[in-house]
What does this fold into?
Amino acid sequence: MTSVEKLFGIQVRVYGDAETKAHESDMKHDRALWLSNHRTRIDWMLLWSVAWRTHTLHQLRIVLKAPLRKIPIFGWAMQHFIFIFLHRHWADDQVNLRKLLPFLLSKEPEASYLLFPEGTDLSESNLEISAAFAEKNGLPRRQYSLYPRTTGWTFMFPLLQSQLTAVYDVTMFYVDYAANERPSEASLLTGRVPRMIHFYIERKDISALRNKNESELAVWVEKRFERKESLLKNFYESNGKLPDGSEPLFEESQAPAATALVAFWLVLIGAATIIGLIGNLISILAAVVLIAGYTISTTYGSGVDGFLIRNL
It folds into this structure.
């Protein structure tokens, strides 16, 4: 149980197919590329619940849209954790990825990676764009997922595959606070968070994908999202029906570790608050300078991660 679950009271259940269940113990040692559907803007944070259970939270590198790196405090922290930010301009993104991924492979060989192939969340405007794409290409309209953008996946996988042991196909099913109410960052502040999230994982051994070329990899991920749409449709239109053959994963209690994690953050926040209250003018000025420096660097410059990439 992560601090997100503990603090917000979100119930989490993790399931897998029979093959994944058979490799449940291996998942704590996997170096995997995770592929997930992307219903909300906070999916990446909620997926920490799975990373916590697989003991990979500390080494999970998440692929996100570049504007998130500018968020005060959190965005700066993500830069330091070397999350992978995409600007949605492929000419630049592929240059950065070609530099950054080999660096991560050499410096963090145990890392796993989280990618959202849809590229954006399931907002009404994005659904309309997806519907227009489907109509233009003679494809069926989707309601619970978007057609995946395959370029990032087909580019990243060949660069990472030498150190991967598996690919995780993760499908997130939400039980909303109120019907069809997609959670957002504001939901975390108002308490209108999902009542429950079901994660369904299909683990694919790396050997099944290693010899595929770019077009075959693109077809593979398109087929996975075609399946996701079907699974999501069944869940939301059939009273929470999970995929056939779903087996529970990671059923051992997470409570002691979660309590320790929450206590750690409460102590840290409390200590920081006390220090801030009794701090002298110099410390306040230093904090202002630090915040201003990060803001200017991220807004008008390349930020910490950009500096790293430029100097690789």
Residues 214-237 form the longest helix (24 residues). The CA atoms of residues 36 and 199 lie 10 Å apart. The chain has a mean pLDDT of 87. The radius of gyration is 20 Å.
